[in-house]
Amino acid sequence: MILNGSGTLYVAIIGAGPAGYYTAEAFAAKHDNVHVDIIDRLPTPYGLIRAGVAPDHQSIKNVALRYAATNEKDNVHFIGNLELGRDVSMEELQQLYDVVILATGAPKDRALGLEGEHLQGVYGSGSFVGWYNSHPDYRDLNPNLKTPTAVIIGNGNVAIDVARILAKTAQEMAETDLAPYAASEIHTSILKDIYIIGRRGPVEAAFTPKELGELNKLENCTPLFDPALLEAFEENTDLTVVQKKNLAILRDIAANKPEKDKIRLHLSFFQRPVAIEGDQSLTNILLEKTKLMPNGVEGTGHTAELKCGLLVSCIGYKASPIEGIPYDTRSGVYVSSDGHISGNLYCVGWARRGPTGTIGTNRPDGVGIADKILSEITPSGKAGRQGLDVLVQTRDLHTVSFANWKKIETAEQEATEGNAPRRKFTNIDKMIKIAES
Ligand code: NAP
């Protein structure tokens, strides 16, 4: 594509996760005269690949190699430890760059909207997953695992991830980058029962078959499912391939019997939490039976109490509101027209469309936004990276380049024990020290 006008198009992408990297890759592939800076508030790149994808799914994390290759291009640069709002304002970025793109994902947990949600022992999946994945924000979460019963709300792949990580043994996790402090809590926990609770039925669940199937291969955990729930689907020929595969896996699981000394993983459907109870800490939840309605579910009024010390709600995420940026509170995304927010400000990935799809879904999204921008914006002699460098120096900010992130990466790889791929650091000051060494 030929850029109209002359000079370099300076693009700032906020957020160094999959959406940010696929967008940078698309720009770099389109034109040499585009300069892309990928800015992240953490000193580390890769966003959800590093802190969201389950530690035992290392093959998915390998996509980071592709992002690293994008970073090797002359016209793409990573700038870590630079936070929008704290170190640099949106207005400043919009003045310095021709284009600013929010690729900040959806880091905020959706709330269940129940009173006891603040109790100790109750966590959103963003914080819980961040904790076991060494995200600096959640290092000190200290979740309560000294409980025999954990409840996971939601029927998506994140719910499965959380259940699996809680249920896997130290040996099963040996070749992963599970945070060591989380490993020592999880592998000495007294968990006997884990419940995954869906407000709708097995057909409506958002699990993918691969992830659901993994639950039936765990060393120390037996998934359990009530076969009576399958009867309604025996004759149904309208099911999708994914639904049929999920039901076949559930049929296998239904044949399981609880085994002595193994964790029981109950796959429960048609229930929703209506109260979370406890004094300071969670002691039990109240579950209401539900029935399917054309637009969701309705409570039946039949409730049952479930004693539990840990509750993780895995019910989706929202983008972080930013002052001055229009935000749709219902869907939890920035208000945009196909990714265009206003002026030279755009959004992409989960920040644009919400938390859906796989990592790869961000690729066409990135290509789409790059095409749209290249057809709408032309270089206008902005200062770009040079201008940002001046601002960084004036404010004495300690940003991290890609080359310096590689030092952190090497140190994390050297800090491992056994066959673990890396031991992720959680202390930002320590990471900056390594980066600047
Ligand atoms: P998700 O797939 O959208 O699932 C969210 C679940 O929460 C749904 O079952 C939903 O039920 C339920 N829910 C929402 N609000 C609720 C409420 N108030 N009370 C009870 N249940 C509620 O979201 P996710 O699991 O967070 O995953 C996000 C995305 O990442 C998905 O696209 C997922 O596939 C992807 N992901 C992929 C992998 C992988 O490929 N290995 C791993 C993790 C995540 P309803 O359907 O009834 O609304």
Account of the protein in words:
The chain is an alpha/beta fold. The protein has two domains: 9-107 and 318-435, 3-Layer(aba) Sandwich (Rossmann fold); 111-315, FAD/NAD(P)-binding domain (3-Layer(bba) Sandwich). The protein contains 15 helices and 19 strands. The strands form five sheets. A six-stranded mixed beta sheet has the order 3-2-1-4-19-18, with helices on both faces. Strands 6-14-7-8-10-9 form a six-stranded parallel beta sheet. A hairpin with a 2-residue loop joins strand 18 (340-342) and strand 19 (345-347). The longest helix is centred in the C-terminal third of the chain and has 15 residues, at 362-376. It is globular, with a radius of gyration of 23 Å. The mean pLDDT is 96. Bound molecules: NADP nicotinamide-adenine-dinucleotide phosphate. Residues 112, 153-159, 161, 198-200, 204, 206, 208, 211, 272, 314-316, 355-358 line the site of NADP nicotinamide-adenine-dinucleotide phosphate. The site of NADP nicotinamide-adenine-dinucleotide phosphate has 24 residues, from helix 7.
Task: Give me a quick take on this structure.
It is built from 15 helices and 19 strands. With 437 residues, it is of the alpha/beta class. α1 (18-30) crosses α12 (362-376) and α14 packs across α15.
